[in-house]
Amino acid sequence: LEEIPRPVQDSGNILKQGYLEKRSREPSFFGSEWHKRWCVLTQRNFFYYANEKSKQPKGSFPIERYRARLASQLRKDSRKKCCFQLLCPGKRSYEFTAPSPAEAEDWVEQIQFLLKDLSSLTIPCEEEDEDEEEEEEELSKDLDSSDSMNNSHNSTLIPEEPSPELEGDDIYEVLPGEIPNSQ
Q1: Three-state helix/strand/coil letters over 92-130
Q2: DSSP codes joined into one string, the chain
Q3: pTM higher than 0.85, yes or no?
Q4: Where is the PH domain (predicted)?
Q5: How many beta carbons lie within 10 A of that of residue 60, not counting itself?
Q6: 14-26+33-121, which class in CATH?
Q7: How many beta carbons lie within 10 A of that of residue 73, not counting itself?
Q8: How distant is the alpha carbon of residue 48 from its chain centre?
Q9: Burial level of 18, CB count in 10 A (0-12/13-18/19+)?
């Protein structure tokens, strides 16, 4: 069995991968250049490599806050229905051509699904423990403050320390309205 090359270290995070044509940033003398790239979408990043076996990406960017959309205006030829863009205000946009219109739609849908998931209110697993601890701390602070408010408003509560009039080491609680037994 031949091992399939995995360019991304954490291959478990790969949501989609495949060859796309990526438009270069600087257009050449003959117009814009399209280069075939092995593209990998993970839960947090978009990577592009020279080919499937490359170990180092030619580029990558965090996918969060990007927007994916089909963009037939990018090309004038027969492949125009295979184009899509990744856009983010204030950041570089990326333009791709998929092997087919269906494949372009699938890339866009996968990215949109991922972005919706990233922007949802669900707490990612790895951060969950820290957030739960913070919530528990806040909850205990709230309980402490509500207890102290109750104490300040309820003057009939007995302090936790035994009063000096109690004899010996016997410690017991006196409830409001009860009179301790005299021995």
Answers
A1: CCEEEECCCHHHHHHHHHHHHHHHHHHHCCCCCHHHHHH
A2: -PPPP--SS-GGG--EEEEEEEE-SS-BTTB--EEEEEEEE-SSEEEEESSTT-SS-SEEEE-TT-EEEE-GGG-SSTTGGGEEEEE-TTS--EEEE-SSHHHHHHHHHHHHHHHHHHHSSPPPHHHHHHHHHHHHHHHHHHHHHHHHHHHHH-TTPPPSSPPTTS-TT------TT--PPP-
A3: no
A4: 13-116
A5: 15
A6: mainly beta
A7: 9
A8: 21
A9: middle
Both structure tokens of 150: 């109750």
Residue linked to tokens 């739960």: 132
State which amino acid sits at residue 119. Answer: S
- Write out the two tokens for 126: 């790895």
147: Cβ contacts below 8 Å, ≥ 6 apart: none
**99 token code pair:** 């092997």
